[in-house]
Structure formats: structure tokens, C-alpha cells
Specification:
The complex is a heterodimer.
Chain A (H helix, E strand, L loop, with lengths): L4 E3 L2 E4 L5 E6 L6 E7 L6 E7 L2 E4 L8 E4 L6 E5 L8 E8 L7 E2 L3 E5 L1
Parallel strand pairs in A: 2-11
Antiparallel strand pairs in A: 1-3, 3-8, 4-5, 4-9, 5-6, 7-8, 9-10, 9-11
Chain B lengths: L2 E3 L4 E5 L4 E3 L2 E3 L4 E8 L5 E7 L5 E3 L5 E5 L4 E6 L8 E9 L10 E2 L3 E6 L1
Parallel strand pairs in B: 2-12
Antiparallel strand pairs in B: 1-4, 3-9, 5-6, 5-10, 7-8, 8-9, 10-11, 10-12
The chains are: A mainly beta, B mainly beta.
Chain lengths: ~110, ~120
């Protein structure tokens, strides 16, 4: 596609529920990143994929968060037992390998009530 | 760990006035530096970046930023702003050394630039 696509654009879920957030990167981009942007803050790194493997997951806040990229293209961020503090905009970005300055999607706004 | 400080959370200016958005970073190693812009209800867009070479970098819409290694700064400037420049601006840094092809970014908290008529 022309850009990084994230779905859904908005997600409201109840505390304790499981959610999946999808990212469809630009075709041919092997690097994929997830960030989280809380209200009034800059984006914070969560996880980095090079191809199918999670090369750096040091930003995941705890074991309720998990992400996959099984075929090296689409990625899914999964959050178990959601908490109100998980409410944020979740951003996905992609780039060619070794490219600095990547393309962000418009994000998924997650609200946990 | 990297940190990025954007000294002003909000900057209100009048149209056609000059503006400077300040950014300082903490790093003991060489870095790549970026400015991203987020227009209302839109995603983050790369405005400009410093990777190497000339310390003054420019964007296509009249913004420029200067890398100052001694002051660990990367301030963003525009000599005359337009109402359409109203947006949130984020400064970000990425380590040059280590991490292989991982160019994860550390962002500042952002500066909301509001251009008034």
C-alpha cells in the first residue's frame, strides 16, 4: 500500500479484556516498529522486528504485551488483561533495513474503560 | 539511556513571525537526530533529519535545524511561520553505535506550535 495502515483506528475495550492491534507496513519494508504514545507524551518504543523476528522487545512494559510478525509483513500487537493504564495511541512504523527515519501509521487509539 | 528534552511544551506565535523550538539530548555517543511533526488528527510525519555531514539541515517547507554537538542541541527554526504550521513537533534521537539495524527512537514530549492570525 501507499502508507502504513493500522486497524482499527479506534478501539474501546473493558478492563480485563484481550485486544489485538494490526499493522500493515509499506510493501517491501523489512523493519517494523511499535510505539506507544500516552496523552501529553512523546511516543515510546515498544518492540522492533527485522523480518519475522523480534530483534528488540526491550520496550514492552510487561508480559501482558506481545507482538508477532509471522510472515515478515503484517504485525499484530496483542494485549492481555487490559488495564486502564494501557489507554494510549499505539503507533506502528516501517522502513527498509538500515534506513533511518521511518514512516509512521496514523495509530490505533485504545481506550480501556 | 538516551533522553530528549524539549524545553517548551507550548509555543504561541503570530503569523509571519520567526520561531525556534528547542531540543536538547543526552548522549555520550554519536547520534542521528530527527524532527517529526504531527498535524491535528494526523499521524507523525518526518520533517527533517541529521545523519552526518553539514550540521544545518532543511525541510521542504522552510524549517531548518542545526546540530550542535558541543551543546547537544538540535533546535528547529523557521524565519516566518504560517497558520498551516500549527501542529505538535517532536524531537527524536537514535543511537548511531550498536543495535545493528535497529534504529529505535527516543522522543521528547513534544512542543505544540500554535500560529495565530
Amino acid at each position: 500500500g501507499a502508507g502504513v495502515s493500522q486497524t482499527p483506528s479506534n478501539k474501546v475495550t473493558e478492563k480485563g479484556k484481550y485486544v489485538e492491534l494490526r499493522c500493515d507496513p509499506i510493501s517491501g519494508h523489512t523493519a517494523l516498529y511499535w510505539y506507544r504514545q500516552s496523552l501529553g507524551q512523546g511516543p515510546e518504543f515498544l518492540i522492533y522486528f527485522q523480518g519475522t523476528g523480534a530483534a528488540d522487545d526491550s520496550g514492552l512494559p510487561n508480559d501482558r504485551f506481545f507482538a508477532v510478525r509471522p510472515e515478515g509483513s503484517v504485525s499484530t500487537l496483542k494485549i492481555q488483561r487490559t488495564e486502564r493504564g494501557d489507554s494510549a495511541v499505539y503507533l506502528c512504523a516501517s522502513s527498509y533495513a538500515n534506513s533511518r527515519g521511518y514512516t509512521f501509521g496514523s495509530g490505533t487509539r485504545l481506550t480501556v474503560v | 539511556a538516551q533522553s530528549v528534552t524539549q524545553l517548551d511544551s507550548q509555543v504561541p506565535v503570530f503569523e509571519e513571525a520567526p520561531v525556534e523550538l528547542r531540543c536538547n539530548y543526552s548522549s555520550s555517543v554519536s547520534v542521528y537526530l530527527f524532527w517529526y511533526v504531527q498535524y491535528p488528527n494526523q499521524g507523525l510525519q518526518l520533517l527533517l533529519k541529521y545523519l552526518s555531514g553539514s550540521t544545518l539541515v532543511e525541510s521542504i517547507n522552510g524549517f531548518e535545524a542545526e546540530f550542535n554537538k558541543s551543546q547537544t542541541s538540535f533546535h528547529l527554526r523557521k524565519p516566518s511561520v504560517h497558520i498551516s504550521d500549527t501542529a505538535e513537533y517532536f524531537c527524536a534521537v537514535s543511537d548511531r553505535v550498536g543495535g545493528g539495524s535497529n534504529y529505535k527512537l527516543t522522543f521528547g514530549k513534544g512542543t505544540l506550535l500554535t500560529v495565530n492570525p
